[in-house]
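Researcher: Please translate sequence to structure tokens.
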Amino acid sequence: MLCRALVAILAVSPVALPAVSLAYDIKPRTPESAFAAKLRPDILGISTDSTPESARAVLESAFKGRTDTKTDIQQANFGDTAVSYIAGLNFNSPAGPKQAGEVLSSSFSSPASANRAYFIARALTFAQDQQPSKTDMIKQLMDKYGAPTIVGDQRLYYIYRAGKTVSVGSKYKQASVLEAIDRPLDPRAALKLDGPNGRGSCVAGVKRSLAKEKSLLAMLDDAKGANCDGALSVQLTPGTTPDRVGNAQFTLVDFKRIVSAAAIDSDALAAEKNDRNPTPQGSVPKL
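Model: Translation complete:
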């Protein structure tokens, strides 16, 4: 079982990422992903192809000049080995009179599964006099991510399966997204995201992922039960007036990577345990 004892390192300025211990020789395998090269959504440049090093470079650039930024670098040990790695990054900058508050976090698999991102989240809180219009925000989102799978409950959902964005029959344009976003999800459309064998839709999976610990183990059951490979959700909370956005919450989760990385880690830990406690190789004596 993967030991997730996280050690948080808090700093106002960025700190160096600790090097991976060489106490145990790990041969990394890249886990499967919901997203293909031509369809790899990102949040502020961080995708599920990112490593802690590449994600940190993006975060340092994005938060450059914000002197009040808090940086949380989370380390974990790989099982019972002395191998340490970066399991999570969190950059947090509070809102100011002329600056949006922003929190951006990402979670990474172990070195055995190539230390790749599988969960990315970004939360923006806009200053009252800088709240963007809902129309402009939706345009920007659709320019970047395309047409969503389903819209409602203040969210745009992009559901991915078999390397494609899932369609439930609604052909969303910017005007129809603007009209639907503050309404409840269409139950008939939402039902189409449920699997025939009772597997749950990714809409529920994304919501549950926000409330859970972001370790592979904590997210594994939901990832296995999701009727999709991955999902992107963008929530737009109204601001001082209904046509303005007060808060924006982005969530990108790669369910396929979670399942694949957990299997790779399990195999690697079993191999490491066998190396520490090898099976006796004695032969049967002559009788």
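Researcher: Any highlights?
Model: Confidence is low (pLDDT under 50) at residues 1-22.
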